[in-house]
Amino acid sequence: MADIAKLVDELSTLTVLEAAELVKALEEKWGVSAAAPVAMAAMPAAGAAAAAEPVEEKTEFDVVLKDAGPKKIETIKVIRQLTNLGLVEAKTMAETAGTKVLSGVGKEVANDAKSKLEAAGAVVAIE
């Protein structure tokens, strides 16, 4: 069996080009790729980092009315302001829990609509 320390010392004297040639020669002889073990070693760390981060930040939101609240007339007025619906449609929307007041809007618009509806006494969720 080869002396590992001696082998390490000898390999340490190689230039970068010589080391690259050695890698290629070993890959050809053994029929493997040196890149695969490196990628496999990096995968658990990269996988953990990817799992901790959200995949993609959401850009479109729905403003959902959960409950019109005690001031239903105020809620209806805000719904009409936000959607340009008629009185009957806005009243129906206010009376139907889980109705989307706005759909596919930006984050600022959704937060603004939510704050206006909550000021009117409604219970609102942004999805």
Please tag this protein with its features:
alpha+beta, 3-stranded antiparallel sheet, 6 helices, 3 strands, rod-shaped
Write down the CATH class of the largest domain. Answer: Alpha Beta
Query: How many distinct beta strands?
Result: 3
Percentage of residues in strands? 5-15%
Q: Radius of gyration in whole Å, from Cα?
A: 31 Å
Low-confidence stretches: none
Structural class: alpha+beta
Element string (H = helix, E = strand): HHHEHHEHE
Number of helices: 6
Q: Return the domain count.
A: 2
Q: What's the average pLDDT?
A: 80
The CATH architecture name of the largest domain reads: 2-Layer Sandwich
Task: Please characterize this protein's 3D structure.
With 127 residues, the chain is α+β, with helices and mostly antiparallel strands. The chain has two domains: 4-52, no CATH class; 61-126, 2-Layer Sandwich (Ribosomal Protein L30, Chain: A). Helix content is 60%, strand content 14%. The longest helix is centred in the middle third of the chain and has 18 residues, at 35-52.
Q: How do the strands and helices of this protein lay out in sequence?
A:
Blueprint: H1 4-12, H2 16-30, H3 35-52, E1 61-67, H4 72-83, H5 87-95, E2 99-105, H6 107-119, E3 123-126
Antiparallel strand pairs: 1-2, 1-3
